Amino acid sequence: MHDKPSLLDIAAKGGKARAKRLTKQQRSEIARTAATARWAESTPRATHSGELKLGNATIPCAVLEDGTRVLTQVEFMMALGRNPRPMSARGSEFEHVPSILRGKAINPFIPQDLLDSSRPIKFITPSGNSALGFRAEILPKVCDVYLKAREAGALPPNQQHIAAQAEILVRALAHLGILALVDEATGFQDARARDALAKILEEFVAKELRKWVSTFPADYYKELFRLRRWRFPDLPRDQQKRPVMAGKITNDVVYARLAPGVRAELHRLTPRDEKGRLKHKLFQRLTENVGHPKLREHLSAVVVVMKLSSDWDSFMRNLDHVLPKYADMPLFDDLPPIEADVTPAL
Questions:
Q1: Which pLDDT does position 154 carry in this prediction?
Q2: Looking at the whole model, is its pTM more than 0.70?
């Protein structure tokens, strides 16, 4: 008596039969599609992109999802006056040297840390295309290699133009950091400032809001700093006083006005231990489908009121009129008077 074939056996036979019917070209296409999908899963994506203008050069740039800033390989090479598509170095002494640093004349002037950090990075652009790039911070270091080689008299005549171009780029970078330039060109600077501020505020904002502090829009922080006459995007110089104040402000402006009865209901729903302490964080009772959308809606309204206000006092008057506190919220200490930075607000 024969066992009945299982569903897995039937499926396997069906798959083999289908594979036999495929042409060689079809099988190759399926394999290529699968390989592309695997590559895309493991390849970092760019979250921001733009163009960096330095002297007489324009270089496409991007910020990857892990925060790495990159300059596209071809335009990086062209900005230095190098051939954007150098010949293969396979089998030569420069086989393991990144293309941007290949050359006998400059080899003695390349520090090991630059060699280690100049490997091209594969990434996916915001539009979904694949690209190669170098870390943005190596640009001034590569320029310095050529300038040192020229100073030592090691550059042949056909590479003098590269050193001249390196000098132009270095001068363009003289008073500006390369990472800040990339952030400005891609629009990443607001996200960077927002995330840095969020990490500070998380220590002082009501625990119920910590889960979502990093999702506050950059405009909220910009307007808060403008109205308090603090410098943005720099963090306040007094790291003890102002973040605490900013936390109180956020508790007042956001949490105390979010919805009626929210705090009381959170305390009612959250059980306590035998010592009277809460067993769970209060924010764990806020729902993703109501709590989070309500927070975003409230923040949008707050930012509008901020933008319509010329100073802090007028903002608070407008806010109390448009989004008053709810009666069940605890009172907050009065905020101290405005104390501006010595440097003008941005």
A1: 94
A2: no
